[in-house]
């Protein structure tokens, strides 16, 4: 008998089954042979929220949540944050290798030359209410892009996919900035091809009357770092949505609108917005213990703390904390930083948080940096979505080319009524 197997005894029948183990995993479908009667459906696994189910094989991002490790294509996140740029990292995530000088030049040129959006998309954004949430505008507008690029339906054509990749990486930033300007009642600022990806984004957000916008190099670098840290995170809620929607073979704009919608929720990419609201609510260091007590009493969760995968300090949070101090050199220290530091100090020494392995996650400090950089709180999830676009499309493409994949279709355990006859209205009680 091979050692790489799992022997299961079905105590209902006394029968034994030998299930192969590969990559420390068994195939759920191998359990279907376990049945009492030949016409039984067979054993399924029950795993709401996929806490112990691998939905795919992937070569993109590696996380060891117990050790606090995050790597894109094998490269440690701290090395990328220190040495790379967002566009280079996006190339790495999408192509599997760091680009050569020529490849990076070509990639940068192509992304940069797809940053403009069709004037009708601008009009589409104009149609949103004056106080529409920018994340809602982003989700709607990215979905609308599919109507502008019907060629995107040709998903099994590599050349077509390449074009949608350029468009998506580039245009998401433009749409995000336009959504902000619309909300503020400010004129749209067109992309500046001479600036870096992050520099141009700051230009489209904040340019006023100056002829040429010059981003602060420190803020530009900080934004690059934040974009790198958010570029991918393997099978999280929104990536799972991207893969699941994409598995129906819909175009990538429609799938990405769905992924962005999943990101919007406060337990995912909306958490940075929720963290800032929480810090504003606490307001001062002396009120932290009272707040922690209410969290422990179960009144609410400490936003920016805890993670499904990380049971150790989120490595992204460590880098963001360092970046925060660099940003404050330019912007001045935000008064909420002291509240955040005290919250972290108390939480990390309290048994409630220690026993549940609840550590600060990526969203705990990112909001404070964004606030210091003058981004309104509603833009925070949008700032997450811009770089995550790279991860979403890489995961989408990997799914499309994976021969193991089919349309996503989980099973259920039906616990509802057995068959019964329709009851006419007059007989219903
Ligand atoms: N504050 C207080 N208690 C918490 C928190 C928190 N932030 N997170 C988890 N717990 C407790 C939870 O009540 C439970 O306690 P008990 O065992 O007594 O019932 C235990 O810890 C396990 O929690 P869980 O809900 O089973 O854990 P999960 O893996 O399903 O949830 C999470 C992960 C991120 C949704 C959760 O930690 C949370 O809601 N955090 C706050 C929201 C947040 O910061 N989200 C951003 C995640 S990082 C960015 C991203 O990738 O999206």
List keywords for this structure.
429 residues, mainly alpha, Citrate Synthase, domain 1, Cytochrome p450-Terp, domain 2, 2 domains, 17 helices, globular, binds carboxymethyl coenzyme *A
In words, what does this structure look like?
- With 429 residues, this protein is mainly α.
- The protein folds into 2 domains: 80-268 and 390-400, Citrate Synthase, domain 1 (Orthogonal Bundle); 271-372, Cytochrome p450-Terp, domain 2 (Orthogonal Bundle), CATH 1.10.230.
- The protein contains 17 helices and 5 strands.
- The strands form 2 sheets. It has a 3-stranded antiparallel beta sheet.
- Strand 4 (69-72) and strand 5 (75-76) form a beta hairpin.
- The model has no long low-confidence stretch (mean pLDDT 96).
- Carboxymethyl coenzyme *A is lined by residues 233, 236, 267-269, 271, 295, 301-308, 356, 358, 361-363.
